[in-house]
UniProtKB/TrEMBL annotation:
Gene3D superfamilies: NagB/RpiA/CoA transferase-like. InterPro entries: FTHF_cligase, FTHF_cligase-like_sf, NagB/RpiA_transferase-like. Substrate binds at residues 50, 55. PANTHER family: 5-FORMYLTETRAHYDROFOLATE CYCLO-LIGASE (PTHR23407:SF1), ATPASE INHIBITOR/5-FORMYLTETRAHYDROFOLATE CYCLO-LIGASE (PTHR23407). This is 5-formyltetrahydrofolate cyclo-ligase. Keywords: ATP-binding, Ligase, Magnesium, Metal-binding, Nucleotide-binding. Belongs to the 5-formyltetrahydrofolate cyclo-ligase family. GO terms for biological process: folic acid-containing compound biosynthetic process; tetrahydrofolate interconversion. Signal peptide: none annotated. It comes from Myroides odoratus. The keyword Methyltransferase does not apply. GO terms for molecular function: 5-formyltetrahydrofolate cyclo-ligase activity; ATP binding; metal ion binding.
Length: 187
């Protein structure tokens, strides 16, 4: 399967989920994440969900991270440059939904990419080798390239792996794990 076909297939599959199904799967994913061998780290980067696109609700995972007293880092995207800035979530963090429907921190304590230990990565689809398909803008590949080499990359998916994504680019950065409601894939 190529990336374009995978994008179309999984956007439709997500749209077909009821709100209740999406919520149940999001909770199951957060619970599965508790089984990952990542909880001895400090700085966890988390994406916030685009509600209209029925993305995985990361609020459940945010509660897990907060309950484990971990530093939660959120990003703000610059759609002109294709870069992201990262901010520590604190009690004073102001979140606003941008024009693309993404909740983002407005400012705060900036965190550099090389300070991150674990990055939870959004995706539409992934394959059995840990290759992911996003929306195709390259934000996460550029971001992950700036992270330290041993940063742990954890994809979150409502659906199971595709056998193979054909058109993987050398610029694409593979996942270390992908968590679905029923399974953890380790690559």
């Amino acid at each position: 399967m190529n990336k374009t076909t995978a994008r179309q297939k999984y956007i439709q599959a997500r749209e077909a989920l009821t709100q209740e199904e999406a919520e149940e799967r999001s909770l199951a994913i957060a619970n599965q994440c508790l089984r990952l061998p990542i909880w001895d780290k400090v700085n966890y980067h988390l994406f916030l969900s685009i509600v209209q696109k029925k993305e995985i609700d990361t609020d459940f995972l945010m509660q897990v991270l907060a309950g484990k007293d971990k530093n939660i880092i959120l990003s703000k995207s610059d759609f002109k440059t294709g870069d992201m800035q990262h901010f520590l979530l604190t009690d004073n963090t102001v979140l606003r939904v941008n024009s693309y429907g993404i909740p983002e921190p407005q400012d705060g304590i900036q965190i550099q990419e090389n300070q991150l230990d674990v990055v939870f990565v959004p995706l539409l689809a992934f394959d059995e080798k840990g290759n992911r398909v996003g929306y195709g803008k390259g934000f996460y590949d550029r971001f992950l390239e700036k992270c330290k080499p041993n940063v742990i990359k954890v994809g979150l998916s409502f659906f199971e792996a595709e056998p193979h994504i054909e058109d993987v680019s050398p610029l694409d950065i593979a996942l270390d794990y992908c968590v679905t409601p029923d399974k953890i894939y380790a690559f």
